[in-house]
Design brief:
mainly beta; Leucine-rich repeat, LRR (right-handed beta-alpha superhelix); 3 domains; nine-stranded mixed β-sheet; seven-stranded mixed β-sheet; 3 helices; 40 strands; about 5% helix
Length: about 500
């Protein structure tokens, strides 16, 4: 009987001890912080980080990380990629539920903490960093694929009120996350959010937390693969960069409110304003922001680009001039031709499906409005420029095709290398020149001068195979006198000419 009693007592004691230890083992990291682990896959030796009570809410956490960090005067918590226990090497795969709960701020003091998560870690479970009020930075690994609901509830939220204050950058750009669903709430200190290209679903918030009232969050970019978004909160969030070509669905449904500021500018891809302003179904809320959409185009290094929109008209932006080509003429016996251009002033609206050339500040990115209604569009009848909304090859018997660019005679139209004018391949939203091989528009020249100055005030109005130097006064375009000009554009007796040698 005595032996049976001792056996029962031993079993009860063993059970009691096991029940009190809600973790499998503890091991110190390189800084001496005792980190608690649960084995989540014994076959593969995978563990997750937990806290001293194994992630339970009650009883109070044993040996809290916040206390350990403060005792060692540390502001950095490093989670190792692997950990040893009883001769076995384990891989750290997750931060468990409430695993790093309240590691910064709270009753112990406002100690700011930065956390380094290891490569190989794939999961941050729900409530993992909950109420870590002075968590000012987390380094996320490229292997991360999942963040659970509420994982960053109020985490870092006290930064704006600290002395000195701090503001968070949430950089998920290198991760493999595809969905974020209510991962945070009560955010007042976020300054920047960088989402990964893999992201597809945003629920609860598009700004990494419902009740996001951070006045430092000025802009956000939604990656191209995103199919669903949520509310856009932030009192000063006035720049929203939408990379998806098609308006994403709203998790609040067709009658919901995206909560975008009326002062915000929403940047969308080329030819996409139409898609957002006419969205249907769960994407319908985007239609409330007609007039707030803008698109952008990059001006080339020489101050020009060709352009084309399939679905939308185009308003020529301030500081720019657009041109269409109405005629091409051969210049005597030279191999050059000259275009006759029509200038279109800033503020004018070019119809959709029109190829044109845009002149602006070299190397600049120009913002423009598109898909305007109730406006008068310019007449582009007779325009010889063709364009495409997607990469496309143009060819066909009886035509010559030219690319727009900088070449031997300066800015103009040229045969594409290796095609001898029989075809051109245009990238998306670019224009080229298509000339009939017969009729009034035909010019057999290989190179065509883009005569943009003639379309306004002055211009390249003469093409010569050579220049008689003895009687002419010649200057280059920098105003320097030239005695032996090579091929190029010069000022000869007060006029711009192209010299061919």
């Amino acid at each position: 009987m005595k032996k049976i009693f001792l056996l029962i007592l031993s079993c009860m004691l063993s059970f009691s001890l096991h029940a009190q230890n809600h973790y499998d083992f503890v091991a110190a990291n390189s800084d001496g912080i005792r980190i608690y682990y649960n084995i989540i896959d014994a076959a593969n030796n995978y563990v997750e980080v937990t806290n001293g009570d194994g992630g339970l809410e009650n009883p109070a956490v044993v040996d809290p990380y916040q206390v350990q960090l403060k005792a060692l005067n540390l502001h950095v918590l490093r989670i190792p990629a692997t950990v040893e226990n009883n001769g076995t090497t384990y891989q750290v795969k997750a931060i468990g539920e409430r695993g790093l709960f309240n590691i910064a701020g709270g009753s112990v003091g406002h100690n700011m903490v930065e956390v380094f998560l290891p490569e190989g870690l794939t999961t941050i479970k729900p409530r993992a960093f909950e109420v870590s009020y002075t968590l000012y930075n987390v380094h996320f690994p490229s292997t991360l694929t999942s963040i659970g609901g509420g994982a960053f509830h109020a985490a870092g939220s006290w930064g704006h009120g600290m002395t000195p204050s701090f503001f968070q950058t949430i950089d998920l750009s290198q991760t493999q996350i595809t969905e974020l669903d209510h991962v945070a709430t009560l955010q007042w200190s976020i300054e920047k959010i960088i989402y990964p290209k893999t992201l597809k679903i945003l629920k609860g918030s598009s700004t990494f937390g419902t009740t996001n009232q951070s006045d430092r969050l000025l802009s956000i970019t939604i990656p191209a693969a995103v199919e669903m978004v949520s509310i856009f909160q932030g009192p000063n969030l006035n720049t929203i960069n939408m990379e998806p070509y098609t308006a994403p669905a709203f998790d609040g449904g067709a009658t919901g409110d995206l909560e975008i500021n009326t002062t915000a500018t929403i940047y969308v891809p080329a030819d996409a304003t139409y898609n957002y302003e006419t969205a249907t179904g769960a994407a319908t809320p985007w239609t409330r922001y007609v007039g707030q959409y803008r698109e952008q185009v990059k001006i080339g290094p020489n101050g020009y680009t060709s352009y084309y929109l399939e679905n939308e008209n185009f308003e020529v932006p301030a500081g720019c001039t657009a041109y269409i080509i109405k005629n091409v003429t051969q210049q005597g016996s030279t191999r050059f031709g000259k275009t006759t251009d029509v200038a279109i002033a800033a503020g004018s609206v070019i119809p959709k499906q029109t190829g044109f050339v845009l002149k602006g500040t070299a190397g600049s990115t120009v913002t423009y409005r598109a898909n305007l209604t109730g406006v008068t569009e310019v007449d582009v009848t007779g325009n010889l420029l063709v364009g495409t909304a997607v990469e496309k090859e143009f060819n066909g018997a009886g035509y010559k095709y030219y690319l727009f660019g900088k070449g031997a005679v300066g800015q103009g139209f040229y045969y594409q290398t290796g095609r001898d004018g029989n075809s051109i391949k245009l990238p998306a939203h670019r224009a080229g020149l298509k000339l009939s091989a017969s009729g009034p528009d035909f010019a057999p020249a290989k190179e065509l001068i883009f005569n943009f100055d003639d379309a306004t005030t002055t211009g390249v109005n003469t093409v010569q195979p050579a220049v008689e130097k003895k009687n002419d006064v010649i200057y280059d375009l920098q105003g320097r006198r030239v005695t032996n000009p090579s091929r190029g554009i010069y000022i000869v007796n007060g006029k711009k000419v192209v010299i061919s040698k």
